[in-house]
Design goal:
This protein is an alpha/beta fold and 266 residues long. Helices cover 36% and strands 24% of the residues. Helix 2 runs antiparallel to helix 9, helix 3 runs parallel beside helix 4 and helix 9 crosses helix 10. The chain binds S-adenosylmethionine.
């Protein structure tokens, strides 16, 4: 096992995304806590609207949140939802049921089985930090893009949710939580544009500060139990109980910067 669970292939293909429940719980807990910041799927769809019309590719589509926004905003002739998790692709398919022109493609983003220059707009949201070498994925995106094609990549700041790490450590649940490398270490807000720039022309960089307020210990536990950064010996109920006994019942405020890089094929 590597020190960073987001780079551990077995965990990424297994416990993290082999079924949709864990990702759904994490994103639901975060969405419930959010007090400021734009909705990433809406921002991506808005940025994508400036690209040429043609095939749209959503890389690492997960449960299809961005795919749905792209479908609604662009109504492209062909929309490809791409992910390596069969379970998440099935969930995306359910959410896009009835939409014409959507194709679901299972694969590894290091080797996208699409022809050269076949894609007008490619989006990759909150997934390239699962690559030990995101430059290789950017090369794949550049290969797939048609002349004039647009790439939109999105990630988070390396210090995202640091206040949560501190609370988890202070409670004694995982004293080393703040000392571990960031989950986003290979592709984060401050190296993303340089990595994208290795194979594409960077046109725009947008940093959006997102703020969160976890209302109480149960809310913190619902998120922490699904975050692989933490090494926790108890279940969600036990986490909440321990937090209440040690650091109190919340609330807890934290932040993350979401960064969008828009780039074009050279
Ligand atoms: C945090 S989810 C993001 C989902 C979606 N883009 C969103 O914004 O909601 C990360 C996704 O990346 C996918 N993923 C991770 N490594 C991958 C790889 N090597 N190839 C393709 N997909 C991958 C996972 O299966 C998961 O669906």
């Amino acid at each position: 096992m590597t020190a960073n669970p987001f780079l551990d292939t077995d965990r990424v293909r297994g416990t993290l995304y082999a079924e949709a429940g864990r990702l759904t719980q994490r994103t639901t807990a975060l969405a419930r806590a959010k007090t400021a910041g734009r909705h990433p799927a809406a921002v991506i769809a808005e940025l994508a609207a400036d690209g040429p019309r043609g095939t749209v590719l959503d890389i690492g589509c997960g449960r299809g949140t961005t795919t749905v926004a792209l479908a609604e905003r662009l109504d492209p002739p062909k929309l490809i939802a791409f992910d390596q998790s069969a379970a998440l692709l099935t969930d995306a398919q359910r959410r896009l049921a009835g939409r014409m022109g959507v194709r679901y493609m299972r694969g590894d983003f290091h080797a996208i089985a699409l022809p050269d220059a076949s894609v007008a707009v490619a989006a990759a949201a909150f997934c390239l930090y699962h690559s030990p070498e995101p430059t290789a994925v950017i090369a794949e995106i550049a290969r797939c893009l048609a002349p004039g094609g647009l790439s939109i990549t999105v990630t988070k700041s390396a210090d995202s949710y640091a206040e949560l790490d501190d609370v988890i450590a202070a409670s004694g649940l995982d004293p080393e939580a703040p000392d571990r490398p960031s989950l986003y270490e290979t592709f984060h807000s401050h190296n993303q544009a340089d990595i994208v720039g290795t194979h594409l022309d960077v046109r725009e960089i947008i940093h959006d500060e997102q703020r969160f307020r976890f209302t109480d210990a149960d809310h913190i536990a619902a998120y922490a139990a699904t975050n692989p950064r933490y090494q926790l010996a108890c279940d969600e109920r036990g986490i909440a109980e321990r937090l209440r006994q040690t650091v109190g019942n919340g609330p807890l405020e934290t932040a993350s910067t979401v960064t969008y890089v828009v780039a074009a094929r050279r």
